[in-house]
Amino acid sequence: MSAPEYAELIRELRAIPSAAPESVRERVRALGEPAPRWSIPQLPWRRSLLVLAPVCVIGVLVAAVVHGVLSSSPSDQAFEHVQSGAQHGAAGSNKQTFGPATDATTPQVLRSPIVPPTSGRHQDYDAWMRIRVKDLDALTQETNEAMQVVRSCGGYVASVNQTTTAGAPGEADLVMRVPVAHVEDALVRLADLGTVLDRRLSIVDLEQTLRQQHQRILRLRLFIARATAELQQSLPADVRLRLQFALEQAKASLSQVARANKGTLRVAALSRISLTLTTEHAATAVRKGGAGRFHRAATSAGHFLAGAGAVVLFLLIVLSPVIVLVVLGVLGVRAYRRREERRLLASA
Amino acid sequence: MRAVNAVTTSWAGLHVDRPSFSAVAESELDAVHRYLLFLTGNRAVAEDLTGETFERAFRRWRRFDPSRGTPRAWLCRIARSTALDHFRAEERRRRREDRFAHGVAVVDETELGPGPLEAALAQLSPAEREVVALRVLLELDGPTAARVLGISATACSTRLSRALKRLEEMMSDVRA
Asked: What distance in Å separates residue B146's CA from the closest CA in chain A?
């Protein structure tokens, strides 16, 4: 500070004796040196915010990318869901479902083993496959080949429905019945007809149904035998009439249950295979290729970011009144302290 | 401002050299006392507050960051806060005493010295005296002094001009 017009005044001001007295000096010297304490250096909150905000943004972006990559992996696309019990003899009609997506372009799914029916148990085995073939010629050829495969396995073709329209992909739908003992072999051979796009298996355990049917048949036979024996004895007319009526009913029920039992055994003996052969140039396969995976990863990452954004927006909406109140409070306290300081220093 | 000639230590692994507390206290004691003397206008109070300021600084020494300002400016901020606390306590005390001793004349505690300049300084408000102390006696630059006072550099400069002008007017009357 050196203002020429106040030079003399400044000289006089500096000449005012204002050195600290010895007593104060002694008091300060007695404090000594503060003990060094090791602690984490505290960054000012503005600097911390400047560092933390980009770190958080980068963290969320990295998490989104990781989430996108992980959720787009092929193993995530094909899933298998097994309800236990069917293979371990549990009572009841248990069902296993395998599928739905069998990606033609992913080797591990192509190589995934087909679940065979459990030997020694009666099961309703239902398989559905969608196979891509090269062109219309191949479609006809492979349709015939599929029929031959089924016949060679001891089965038969229940229905064939082939559609070929100019300019549209051709399709052949075959419904086949194959003895359960040979279904695994049939499925493996059918899968070789082209590229498997999709495969579903459904296994329903029929043991309990059959057991119930057998028990009912036994009970009805026993009743019929007893009723027939009683009718050979002398009975009052009304009792005989009622017994004859019950006997007729039992015989009808027995024949009905026996038919149902035969039907169940037939279902258990023959598996059902629904095969769709298509020339469709697998939009699915293309979609599930390299570019498709990138697209899925980007979409998944986008969803993740949108979710994170929604959470942040929700928090902002919920917390904004509190933040506004806190900021107003801080500003108010600061303004109050400033005014108080001014008043104190103006009048003290 | 005198350079602090002291032993330096490494600060919490950040490799920022900082002087030792005792060296800073030794070199800045007079400056802080001078500032408090002008701010309070009372030698006895200034001595008490100087001691208290250094005790506070001793406790907060770990928080001192040499990269953000000089030890003198940091100590002046602590001194100012200590003085403001003193003024608040004094105000409370006066209010309490007024309740019981209504009508008793209040003794003016401002006491800088016997000369005309000291008398003229006593006519200034503490806010004016402290800006004179910071800018003229302690030779802090404008922005640093403004930061200590918590006002803008322009406001600091205006306040200083006004204080010096008033002092000059009072002193020219005396000289005449």
From this structure: 14
Q: Identify whether B2 is part of a domain.
A: no
pLDDT at position A2 is 55
- B69: in domain: yes
* Length of chain A (residues): 348
Q: What is the pLDDT at residue B3?
A: 42
Q: State the residue range of the domain holding B50.
A: 8-175
Does residue B12 lie in a domain region? yes
| Cβ separation A344–B84 shorter than 8 A | yes
User: What's the helix, strand, coil split of chain A in %, to 5?
Assistant: 60, 15, 25
How far does the CA of residue B102 sit from the closest CA of chain A (Å)? 19
Strand-pairing partners, residue B131, are none
DSSP annotation of A20: P
| Of the candidates A25, A344, A19, the residue with the CA atom closest to the CA atom of residue B137 | A19
Burial of B94 (0-12, 13-18, 19+ CB in 10 A): exposed
B1 belongs to a structural domain: no
H or E element that contains A277: strand A270-278
Cα of first residue to Cα of last residue in chain A, in angstroms, is: 26
Please state, in angstroms and rounded to a whole number, the distance separating the CA atoms of residues A80 and A98: 5
CB contact under 8 A, A9 and B171: yes
- Evaluate the omega torsion of the peptide bond into residue A100 and state whether it is cis, within 30 degrees of 0: yes
CATH number of the structural domain spanning residue B12? 1.20.140.160
What's the complex ipTM?
Answer: 0.78
For residue B106, what are the CA distances in angstroms to A341, B97, B100, B102, B110?
A: 22, 10, 13, 10, 12
Which residues on chain A place their C-beta less than 8 Å from a C-beta of chain B?
Answer: 1, 3, 5-6, 9-10, 12-14, 16-21, 23-25, 27-29, 31-34, 36-42, 338, 340-342, 344-348
> Which residues of chain A register pLDDT less than 70?
1-3, 37-43, 73-113, 281-291, 347-348
Pairing of strands A123-132, A195-205: antiparallel
Residue from B164, B170, B175 to probe the interface with A (highest A Cβ count within 10 Å) = B164
Q: How many domains does chain B have?
A: 1
The model carries a pTM of 0.51
**Which residues of chain B register pLDDT less than 50?**
1-15
Q: Which residues pair with B112 in a beta bridge?
A: none
